[in-house]
From TrEMBL:
Entry annotated with the keyword rRNA-binding: no
Residue ranges the record marks as coiled coil: none
Domain of life: Bacteria
Iron in keyword set: yes
Designated name of the protein: Uracil-DNA glycosylase
SMART domains: UDG, UreE_C
Native source species: Phormidium pseudopriestleyi FRX01
Length: 225
């Protein structure tokens, strides 16, 4: 845990180095320091990572990614697959964290519900790379929504992910990429990762919201089945 704490500390140092958009009132309401990253929840030894866009108010309040309405849909699907039953409450849903890593493109909450700019994502990209390549031990990533999937574009040949995402079977097919990260000593590490995209589980995503639980279940069945 010492090494992952070092990564978290370095992210906070970067956040303090120069200003970027932060939803400070939400952090203040939660009694949280805005520059303290909420990097991940779950198990770094797990085979599966669920990768979202960024944090919401519920995530700031609980210090966990994917805890609000959309995250609860993911956690409920995981619980259903792992335990073949329905969780009684959010406390019981915590059991799924033994089997998954939850993280985002940026470990902070932007003002409102607006996604972070590409510049902010790229500013924190080296740290997310290190989390996924140097600390997490798994090799399958479920991405939630377009922003989360697009984050991986630099790790595939030009046009590959764009072409993949235009396919009609994108939410049932997979794409292998090669993630790369530079550790704190300047060494380069590479690992093959299988991307398993899904639509974002938001009620605003009218086209796919009703389909999301079934699409997620199909993904999870191939991993844990």
């Amino acid at each position: 845990m010492l090494e992952i704490q070092t990564l978290i500390d370095e992210i906070q140092e970067e956040a303090k180095r120069a200003e970027f958009p932060l939803d400070e009132p939400i952090y203040q309401k939660a009694g949280a320091e805005p520059t303290q990253p909420i990097l991940y929840a779950g198990n770094l030894q797990s085979q599966l990572c669920v990768f979202g866009r960024d944090l919401g108010k519920d995530e700031v309040a609980t210090r966990q990614p994917l805890y609000g309405a959309a995250g609860s849909l993911v956690r409920k699907g995981l619980y259903r697959t792992l335990f073949n039953s329905e969780a009684r409450d959010k406390t019981e849903l915590e059991k799924v964290l033994d089997q998954v890593l939850l993280t985002n493109t940026v470990p902070y909450k932007p003002p409102g519900n607006k996604a972070y700019s590409t510049a902010v994502k790229n500013r924190f990209r080296p740290y997310i790379e290190r989390l996924l390549v140097c600390h997490w031990q798994g090799d399958r990533i479920i991405t939630l929504g377009n922003d989360a999937f697009d984050w991986f574009t630099p790790y595939a040949p030009k046009g590959t992910l764009k072409e993949f995402f235009q396919r009609g079977d994108r939410y049932s097919s997979s794409q292998i990429i090669t993630l790369q990260a530079e550790d704190s000593q300047g060494n380069i590490h590479q690992r093959p990762i299988t991307l398993l995209p899904l639509p974002h589980p938001s009620p605003l995503n009218q086209r796919y919201y009703a389909q999301f639980p079934q699409l997620l279940q199909q993904r999870l069945s191939t991993i844990f089945g």
